[in-house]
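can u do me a favor
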């Protein structure tokens, strides 16, 4: 009796093994080509897609199977996908090595987003006008030190100032607050706010003129400048002006910093405000360069001053913010322009995408998955709030080819 039982069990196991290791392979071989599967966020390029269409046409598996697999593919390969909603004026996006997404929110909190969402509030943020919690950068040596740098507006003796602080991230909390650079000019408008580490390992800081336009030309005033410091806040020996963090000057309100494949620094900058607006700039930044504000604007030029590589002209407003480099192109976000701009460094052509589709755009970043991430800024009092605002939207860059 016991022997018979063992034989029956062995037979069942043998049939089961045959089915999984052999019959499925036969079925696949005779009835359909191997399916190209895609993880969410991983793109399959057009050629592969075309090839798959041809394959499916030629091989024609059972109709039910086609419908099912195509639906799955559409879901997985969605080129434009909202990945976070109900945010409050997101300003910068970054990623931890673990893949967790970090988003600064201007009212003064940092979001850590993976499958869930954790909100960490940042002490001492004054959310006034354009000021608040803004830029963010991870230390180039983050894996070893877990340092995170934040640019924020605070108050000192009743006045608004901006500063860069450093924290250590540990298990979804921020520890060891350290001030890296303090008392940068602050105001209700023109707070700049972008920070980024250059390929040289220095921290670059875009500071707005804080409404003091003429002082953008003064080297001892840190507003209307792009600054360059060591990551501990000290001044690099090879800065263009001795014992000064100033790297370039004559800026109005720069809000985007990025380096291209040649290691050149680019910056976006807001031009004149108000009813006239316009004259927004994309600048190629040189050490010690004077970018002209408020003496020249738009396409004007003057001895000793550097004109923008491109500018929006008198009647168009981009209100450019976040900027990054991707395959010989610079992409930047437009607030009032409500677009993602694409400047081709080779053809010198400027294109715009998603005009008014998502509203005002502030942060743009290239994710570790090779996708673009954009954040809306429709809750900042100047936009038209849409369902789910503010959002982070993931874009497959293949759509720009
Ligand atoms: Ca300029």
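np, heres the sequence
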């Amino acid at each position: 009796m016991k022997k018979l039982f063992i034989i029956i069990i062995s037979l069942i196991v043998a049939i089961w093994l045959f089915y999984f290791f052999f019959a499925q392979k036969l079925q696949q071989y005779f009835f359909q080509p191997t399916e190209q599967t895609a993880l969410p966020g991983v793109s399959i390029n057009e050629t592969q897609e075309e090839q798959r269409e041809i394959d499916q046409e030629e091989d024609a598996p059972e109709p039910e199977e086609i419908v099912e697999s195509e639906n799955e593919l559409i879901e997985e390969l969605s080129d434009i996908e909202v990945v976070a909603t109900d945010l409050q004026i997101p300003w910068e996006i970054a990623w931890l090595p673990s893949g967790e997404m970090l988003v600064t929110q201007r009212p003064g909190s940092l979001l850590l987003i993976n499958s869930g969402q954790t909100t960490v509030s940042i002490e001492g943020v004054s959310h006034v006008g354009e000021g608040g919690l803004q830029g963010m950068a991870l230390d180039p040596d983050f894996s070893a030190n877990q340092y995170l740098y934040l640019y924020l507006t605070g108050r000192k003796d009743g006045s608004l100032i901006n500063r860069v602080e450093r924290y250590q991230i540990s298990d979804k909390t921020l520890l060891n607050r350290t001030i890296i650079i303090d008392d940068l000019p602050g105001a209700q408008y023109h707070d700049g706010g972008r920070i980024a580490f250059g390929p040289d390992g220095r921290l670059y800081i875009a500071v707005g003129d804080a409404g003091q336009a003429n002082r953008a030309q003064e080297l001892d005033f840190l507003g209307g400048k792009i600054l360059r410091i060591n990551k501990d806040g000290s001044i690099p020996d090879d800065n263009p002006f001795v014992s000064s963090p100033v790297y370039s000057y004559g800026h109005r309100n720069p809000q985007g910093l990025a380096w291209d494949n040649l290691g050149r620094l680019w910056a976006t900058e807001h031009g004149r405000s108000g009813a006239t607006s316009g004259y927004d700039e994309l600048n190629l930044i040189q050490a010690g360069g004077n970018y002209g504000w408020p003496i020249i604007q738009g396409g004007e030029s003057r001895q000793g001053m550097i004109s923008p590589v491109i500018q929006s002209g008198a009647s168009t407003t981009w209100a450019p913010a976040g900027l990054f480099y991707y395959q010989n192109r610079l992409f930047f976000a437009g607030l009032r322009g409500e677009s993602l701009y694409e400047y081709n460094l080779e053809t010198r052509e400027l294109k715009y995408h998603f005009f008014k589709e998502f509203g005002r755009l502030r942060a743009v970043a290239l994710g570790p998955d090779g996708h673009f991430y954009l954040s809306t800024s429709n809750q900042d009092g100047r936009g038209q709030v849409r369902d789910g605002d503010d959002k982070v939207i993931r874009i497959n860059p293949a759509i720009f080819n």
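Residues 281, 291-293, 308 surround calcium ion (CB under 6 Å). hope that helps!!
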